[in-house]
Write a structure and sequence with these properties.
heterodimer, A: 328 residues, mainly alpha, MetI-like fold, 2 domains, B: 311 residues, alpha/beta, Rossmann fold, eight-stranded mixed sheet, four-stranded antiparallel sheet, 9 helices, 26% strand, globular
Amino acid sequence: MKRLQKAIFLCIRTVSLLFAVSAISFALISASPVDPVQQYILGLGTAVSPEQRAQIEAFWGVEKPLLERYFSWLGQLLCGNLGESLLYRRPVAQIIGERFRNSLALMGCAWALAGIVGFLLGCVMGMYRDKGPDKLLKKVCYVLSSTPAFWLGLLLLLVFSVWLGWLPVGFSAPVGALKEEVTVWQKVRHLVLPAATLSLTSFANIALHTRQKLIDVLESDYVLFARARGEGEWTILRRHGLRNILLPAVTLQFSSFSELFGGSVLAETVFSYPGLGSAVSEAGLNADVPLFLGITLFSALFVCAGNLAADLLYGVIDPQMGEGEKTG
Amino acid sequence: MTENRESLLSIRDFGVSFQRYDSRMGQTRLQVISNLHLTVYPGEILAVVGSSGSGKSLLALAILGMLPLNAVTGGEILYRGKELTPERQKQLRGKKIALVPQSVTFLDPLMKTGKQADGQGGTGLTQKRRDIFRRLGLPGKTENLYPFQLSGGMARRVLVSTALLTEAELILADEPTPGMSLEQALEALRMFREMAEEGRAVLLITHDLDLAVEFADRVAVFYAGTTVETARASDFQNGPDALRHPYSRALWESLPQNGFRPVNGFQPYAGNLPGGCPYAPRCPLRTARCETALPPVRTVRGGEVRCYDGA
């Protein structure tokens, strides 16, 4: 019963959040100097007289009040119609689907790598607290977390693609190759640098949080008792440390979806990687309003899914929270 | 009688102080335990009785060599006649010296109780542990519960079981019984007694004088970070005349069955100790030298006492 209630609550929360995001982003776009009509006319490639322009505006309902425009857009949205991209002249949903598949590979790799590396380094830092390895890694973390993703991307490009020539400069496949002929190996080679950029800028957060939590755990009464029972430091980490520091790490890891998405916009732009991130910057720069709003909603859903996953995993890792769900 | 046996643990002139950094005064030292004398013999239960804040729990950590890093110790601790160095403490921890800590916070919140009690011994100890759980009145399902699902008394019984599972020769039990029902507490103490009869020793740290007198062989009275008297438990049953230190007598008189008379004043806290005998400010028998120099330990009628009176 409690589970059902919780599920309903989460659904309501997600829907109301998406509703709020759609309203706010629609209002912001309307208030901005972005002119979708102008963009549409540019895309036509022919000269348009002021009368024709007025006709287009009347057809699109540009002069109608904001609320009316919003609700007609929302109505279409609820029917599953995200509109057509002004830039690509194709349905927005189709573009998001395609781009997201590319981004998923990139963000998935970067996310897993950042999580694993961050957690392991956090453990090492916690165990060697205030000693050499901890001091060194802490500096590395501070430097990397204050490095902008696009700058790091350029740096990696310069070193590994331009100077060393080990890895391709951009895109998700060799230029000019047919889609059917692209091998997995080629795809992986194109993925390395953007994924490295994205994970390098995001693991520091999880490493520093894991370090602090491990230090708290090592100072706890139950670790004191474990020491009194003759357990060694590494046994303590394995028996008591890992599970107790996993909860904050998992929470952070799943709630980092927003930073991950934000980082992917920069990384994909630098590497011309055809993912959702580069699509959003193209849509923004070219005033492609339908695509822009579509991706905004999609990314909100994506971040929401991450937080939801963190919520659900709590109960699995911490029996106290699982119990709370059943009885409390 | 006990004096002729070889001691298991012998603590002499032991002190613990903490280094603190103060913005105005720079580095300062906070003396928490000082001039502590205590001897534990195999086969006995020695109770250390003192009020909270008197430094009792630190004593257990000091014996295990697990004081915080900013703690400085003085004096010496001998285990089986040899100095208890940090290396030896590390070897003996959990094997020859076992701790029974105070509360549920000493259990890992994310590990099931049974697995936790087995400890590093793993499944090899499971059968023995189940027997001990049963004797302590823990229901069979306890082993599958997490610490947050235990009552305070259950948690303490689980903690007691961890020491009973070891081959330890010395058990440091820090307030093991509060929260248990009388029956459970008695069963736990009976198990400590059995261990003592096997030739092991139990150091029972408690604030409960009645319990100490009932179950221990000897009672050490702890006051402001030091032991003022170590007496046979029977001395407390025989009344104030059998006791040696004015504080022990005051403690005896403050028990409900002995008149419930409170002692005036309060125990000085660490960092605020008077020079000389720490009990002097409250003592009816104090003389001028009590306030300037700490009395040496004397053996009086088979007990040890730090007092000039009667010397």
